[in-house]
Amino acid sequence: MTEDRPIRLLSYNIRKALGTDRRRDPMRIVRVLSHTQADIVLLQEADLRLGDRPAVLSEDALGDIGLAPLAVADTDVSMGWHGNAILLRADWTARQITRIPLPGFEPRGAVSAIIDTPQGPLRVIGLHMGLLRRSRVAQQNAILAWIADQSDIQTILAGDLNEWTLHRGLGPFAKSHSLHAPGRSYHARWRLAPLDRIAVDRRLDLIDTGMIDTKLTRAASDHLPIYADLEPGSLRGV
Q: H or E element: which one contains 121?
């Protein structure tokens, strides 16, 4: 990759690879990812819910399309933490991989890493926020407090924020980040709500955000994947 190519970050709630046709097909998710040309992928619901919470995607299959999971899990069988996983181009490196506990009615957590991109370091945070608005507000405040204690590296957050409206509920993030809702990403077939969002450090420039809406993505999960393309050079000087 050269510095004049945008960095593509993808966020995708894969619903444990259970498609809208009620079939669990991990390779269908892998095919979606292979078509996105993403450099960084933030997954939600990447592990099965019961037992030891094993990963639903094969590391070998991901390796075949040039992606590798970062070590965010706290077990040997999971790919994520609270279902959140980070995949990275196999030829890139990451550091300061962190699990961020989040408050709320249900057990939730976020995962973070600093990615050493060809354009400079970028902190990414993947999250899946709670079902109750008061929990989501507390979770936003917890993440922002955590960021404030870290080194000053430009940051992008993305995931299933579980907020159904465009104008309420995400006030804490909106105070310090540019919020992007690429579309009604849930439900993949019925377009009910913009649950999947991207929050971008205001020092970062985006070329584009959007949803990937194809016959394959409408079948692979009940969420559509969303993406953000970062302007080349926006990380320089960090």
A: strand 120-128
Query: What is the strand order of the sheet 196-201 is part of?
Result: 93-102, 108-117, 120-128, 155-160, 196-201, 177-180
Report the side by side order of strands in the sheet with 226-230.
67-69, 85-89, 40-44, 7-13, 226-230, 206-211
- CA-nearest of 54, 56, 52, 69 to 28 is 56
Q: Is the pTM of this model over 0.90?
A: yes
What are the residues whose beta carbons fall under 8 Å from the beta carbon of 159, sequence distance 6 or more? 11, 13, 42, 44, 84, 110, 126, 127, 128, 129, 196, 197
Pairwise CA distance, residues 175 & 62, whole Å: 36
Distance in angstroms (rounded) separating the CA atoms of residues 222 and 55: 18
**Which of 164, 158, 162 is closest to 180 using CA atoms?**
158
pLDDT tens, per residue, the chain with 238 residues: 456 789 999 999 999 999 999 999 999 999 999 999 999 999 999 999 887 899 999 999 999 999 999 999 999 999 999 999 999 999 999 999 999 999 999 999 999 999 999 999 999 999 999 999 999 999 999 999 999 999 999 999 999 999 999 889 999 999 999 999 999 999 999 999 999 999 999 999 999 999 999 999 999 999 999 999 998 888 865 4
Tokens of residue 106, six digits: 């249900």
Which three-class secondary structure state does DSSP give residue 169? coil
